[in-house]
Amino acid sequence: MTFDNFSPNRRDPKFMDCTVNFDIICYDDEWDLEGFQIRPLVIAGYIDGILNSISNENKTAWQNKGASNIKLSGMG
Length: 76
Known about the structure:
This protein is of the alpha+beta class.
């Protein structure tokens, strides 16, 4: 997992913006899963689901503040 340069958030300077990159490494003989799935893509899907999940309560609170991009319930 790597991060780019952190910069102050334009809407709320108490928070920082950055890009998080994930490198998913698997042995070649472990790639194929049942149902024509590929292990690295399944792992990426789990990571995406965690980072994009949010409760309805948090979503309402953020939308009331004018936020348009609601993410990172697991890391935020």
